[in-house]
């Protein structure tokens, strides 16, 4: 184990065991270096690594603190590594997405308000009206993000946003088959939004799962085995 790894795991242990809690200032460099048996340079590199993961917050002129460790913030840091996944790895993630998107859709169907329904159908209409793939992708993200938000679990919403961000690197709608794929995707959105509007959790879960599965099939069928293009929803 390198000195940086030793410092990283030492700090992580202090936080994980509760010795350093959310919002607490970490001890001075000198004390930590002596306790962990590492140099200041190794400790600082470990702090930078934990900061990138959203676990530690360096504050200029004040010191370094443990973050609030909100689950959605820590989950959001997954984007740093998920962005590196090749298509084969992303397709494995889709099995998780199918389960989670179905769950949040069912929750949204149980909890939605008329305002939510209006928002979802307005986004669908905007998606159907635009010919700009980038705008369509952004509207698609907002549609699914709204469903996740209404589902009521910020951590799940963040995790799904991370998954979708990686998926959007693949622009299947710009392919020759794109217009037909767009029509099928728009139809899927209407089925999902209608199930939510009807307060039907079972139908909403089924529609969400089928929609994600369809996108997965498109990626398998149309995307190259080696990453060449940069999103499906």
H/E element sequence: HHHEEHHHHHHHH
Net shape = elongated
The radius of gyration over CA amounts to 22 Å
Q: How widely separated are the two ends?
A: 40 Å
Largest sheet: 2 strands, antiparallel
Number of strands: 2
In the sheet with the most strands, the strands line up as 1-2
Per DSSP, the total helix count is 11
Strand content: under 5%
| Global structural class | mainly alpha
Kindly describe this structure.
This protein is mainly alpha-helical and 233 residues long. The chain contains 11 helices and 2 strands. The protein has a two-stranded antiparallel ribbon. A hairpin with a 3-residue loop joins strand 1 and strand 2.
Please provide a brief summary of the model.
This is FCD domain-containing protein. This protein has helices spanning 3-16, 29-36, 40-52, 71-76, 79-82, 87-111, 114-129, 133-151, 154-167, 178-197, 201-222, and strands spanning 56-59, 63-66. The chain is mostly helical and 233 residues long.
């Amino acid at each position: 184990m390198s000195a940086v790894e030793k410092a990283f795991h030492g700090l992580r242990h202090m936080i994980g065991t509760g010795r350093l809690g959310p919002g607490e200032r970490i001890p001075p460099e000198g004390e930590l270096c002596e306790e962990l048996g590492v140099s200041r340079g190794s400790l600082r590199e470990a702090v930078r690594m934990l900061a990138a993961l959203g676990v530690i917050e360096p504050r200029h002129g004040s010191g370094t603190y443990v973050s609030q460790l909100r689950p959605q913030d820590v989950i959001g840091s997954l984007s740093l590594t998920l962005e590196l996944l090749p298509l084969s790895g992303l397709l494995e993630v889709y099995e998780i997405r199918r389960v989670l998107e179905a769950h949040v859709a069912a929750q949204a169907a149980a909890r939605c308000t008329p305002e939510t329904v209006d928002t979802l159908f307005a986004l669908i209409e905007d998606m159907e009206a635009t010919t700009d793939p980038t705008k369509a992708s952004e509207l698609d993200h907002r549609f699914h993000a709204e469903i996740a938000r209404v589902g009521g679990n910020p951590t799940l919403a963040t995790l799904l946003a991370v998954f979708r961000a990686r998926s959007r690197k693949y622009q299947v709608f710009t392919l020759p088959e794109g217009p037909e794929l767009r029509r099928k995707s728009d139809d899927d959105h209407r089925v999902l939004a209608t199930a939510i509007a009807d307060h039907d959790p079972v139908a909403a879960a089924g529609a969400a799962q089928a929609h994600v599965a369809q996108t997965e099939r498109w990626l398998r069928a149309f995307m190259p085995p080696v990453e060449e293009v940069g999103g499906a929803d």
